[in-house]
Amino acid sequence: MRVVIVGAGEVGSSVAASLAGDHEVMVIDLDSERVDTLTYSLDVLAVEGDGASVKTLREAGIDDADLLIACTDDDETNIVSCGTAKTISDAFTIARIRNTKFLDTWSQSKGALGIDLMVGTNLLAAQSIVRVIGLPGAEDVDRFADGLIQMAEFRITDETPVTGMSVAEADTFDSLTFAAIIRDDEVVIPSGDTCLQTDDDVVVIGSPGSISDFAQTIEPDVDGVSDVLIVGGNEIGLEVARLLDEKGTPNRLVEPDPERARYLAETLPKTTVLQNDPTDQEFLLREHIGDVDVAIATLDSDERNLLSALLSKRLGAARSIAVVEDGDYSDLFEAVGVDVAVNPREAIAEEITRFTREQHAENVAIIEHDRAEVIEVEVDSGSVLLDRPISQSIRDLPDGVVIGAIARDGTYVIPRGDTVIEKDDHIVVFAAQEIVEETMELI
Amino acid sequence: MSWRVDWQASVGLLGTGLKYLAVTMFVPLFVAVVYMEDIWVFALSIVFVTTLGFALERIDTDPDIGPREALVFVSLAWLTAAVVGTIPYLLAGFGTSSTLADPVNALFESMSGFTTTGATVMGQISLEQHSHALLIWRQLTQWLGGMGIIVLMIAILPEVAVNGAQLMASEAPGPELQKLTPKIAETARVLWLIYFAFTLMYIAVMYGLHLAGFAPNMDLYNAVAHGFTTLPTGGFSPQAESIAYFSAAVQWAAIPFLVVAGVNFALFWHVLKGEVDVMLENTEFRAYAGAIAVTTAVLSLLLVRGAAPPLDIGGVTGGVTENTFRQAAFQIASLLNSTGYATSDFAQWGTHAQVFLLFVMFIGGSAGSTGGGVKVVRWLVVFKAIRRELYTTANPDVVEPVRLSGSVVDEDAVRGIASFTLLYILLFGFSAVFISLDTARIGIELTTLEAVSASLATIGNIGPGFGRLGPFGNYLFFSDASKMLMIFLMWVGRLEIVPVLAVFISVFDRNQ
């Protein structure tokens, strides 16, 4: 596939890096230094110029391209780049958008503005934060098959009641599959007698009900989230507050800038907006941060988010979630005590990965910063799974593939050895990163 | 502060307005011809006003109206209308014992009419003493003043429409101008048409009741006369006994129209467009409807527990319970939005009921209605701002905007509304003291309730007060000084203070 990427910032570069192996990638950027860096560091063609101009797009080979990904930091540039590409080529266009208003416009009529897929990064990040908030103890949550199936990742600690139990002992739920355990960067596919150890990350796939029951087992003391403090009123913070408002979860939002605070207070009728320095301890104590169920750091720098998340933990917040723009820091954040680090770029990567798969995936969740993927696929005639019981077909798949759940005609089907997979079933599969491509080809 | 106003432009435009005011005098002239009374009074008035209009118009034939000129013009227009409106009273009263033959009284009556106050200094309101035509003129002034003479000018005069938004903002009741259509003249026309339609509907209902036999006294003359004063929340009646002169059916039928008169007319435009939600979800409308419901219930209770109100003076009545509830519902509908009709002499009700009514008079109609007073929307904003103040005192970091109907009220608007309300209350308080002292000076002692209600009933454009100023009393006994103050209060009350102050500032501040 020929892919043109407009914008060689962090997003553009990481997308280019992940695609460079299997595809022909062209990257456009205004900054000559970035173009040079890319030219020498990745196996891509880097073009210096304006992605919104026909001339530059042609230079990058838009005429034969299958896919255009516009992911500069500027929404308007991304929109115009897609629109321009659409007028001169048949490429599928993906635009990265920060401001939700454009997303609203686009969702009125898909394909509007010449954009085939609009990825609202702030909204996606906010959605993943809100999903994590809704599930006590979870580090990552994703939805599949229109919400019928969920995937969640939990950290096993010393205090977790299931620590030391075998999977068979821990699994008392009907519609739940223990898909994998991430142990010391290794992906372990568990069997019934695999033991759950401290510092394991366990990935489960199942119905939302059973997943939340499992969360209850892991964190029995937590009963519902009723006090959320959002620290930092940038676009992600705003979207988080908006989503929590929609769910009816009470929340407070702290913003240091008076004008921005005023804007937030006007935009969010149900959120209590506080204007103060979000890293001022005295202020946080006055706001009883110790009683807060979840503190979310959505400030504009990773350093401040780390500081804020650690501070709120130290002052007694039950859980802390921090946004981390630089994906390399995600592990570090979680290592030093932040409960969950959410990387907005991961959300973009998930969306883009979904579209660059040879065979169309319905949905993709990236686990542990690219160590594994959970993929939703609609089964069609070419699949090795079709019309066979799982116990047979699994032998044709690479080791390490787990069929976590099946959605058939809007109902949840528990995958067992004798379950026969039918055409149009939606299956949710767990696969370690190195076997994803191979698995996708087979199913 | 320097304040320069192009007076010639304002006065020139005033001339144009007067020409059209003369046209409205054809209505009483027509009535005069029908009844063959006072024809010369109105013929002469028309000639006089038209001449004055043409003369003033020549001062500036192409007036250029800016924001300041708009403020000054609007104030002067209302003052001039009131002054010119006295001409028929003076001419008709010339050489008779009519109290309106006195210039101060005539101006009081005329200002009370145009500002839809409804306070009267007529010694005797009766068709025996005054002609049908004169009384219809008195009624008509309220109808013209209700939706606003400026709004009417904008609706019909293309030369005014250009700067119409500024003019309309100065006159329209409430804190802000609401444009319904891109063209301001169109908005003005829509408002006047709705107003006109409701008036016609009211006349049809009233005359219909008469024809059906439910309202013996409500003949066509009375139906039209009351149509002119119900929708503008005026309260003048050609009958000395006001609405009490008519049957219970008339009183019941009038209540919904009284309620309607206090609703923002722009909301009816949305209803006409099929957007009923806009009205139902409007915070001010809900508060207004809620206030009417609650205060009616409270007043009914006060009347049931206290002495039952005296039965009607005339007309058909139901039982005591029906009478009590009707009196309560009617007085609330009539006083809350500043109409001031009377079905019963509430000045004879118990003190607690009177004090409660005094409180009700403070509320006022909705912004964009014909009602006077402080207006429901301002009270809402004031209360919300106070609540916010209390909340942020305990939580100093909280940022909380004031919201109405889901949208944020601008902080400047909150400040403006707070200062308006304070100014209104100060002016009201000062005037109550002045009226009380001045009346004592001429040897008449006012009760506290009378003094307070005199001030409130005039600045709020309500009309009747308590005691001697009750619905069947009048303002005749006050000294000229008190009457002049009350004329001023009615004027500033109708224009919501600021435009009138603008005139004074521009007079005293010209040479700085």
TrEMBL record, chain A:
One GO location term (cellular component): plasma membrane
Organism per entry: Halapricum desulfuricans
Domain of life of the native organism: Archaea
Function: Part of a potassium transport system.
Domain RCK N-terminal residues, every copy: 1-119, 225-342
Organism lineage string: Archaea, Methanobacteriati, Methanobacteriota, Stenosarchaea group, Halobacteria
PANTHER family, A to Z: POTASSIUM CHANNEL PROTEIN 2-RELATED-RELATED, TRK SYSTEM POTASSIUM UPTAKE PROTEIN TRKA
Protein name, entry field: TrkA, K+ transport system, NAD-binding component
Domain RCK C-terminal: 139-220, 362-443
GO molecular function: potassium ion transmembrane transporter activity
UniProt KW keywords: Ion transport, NAD, Potassium, Potassium transport, Transport
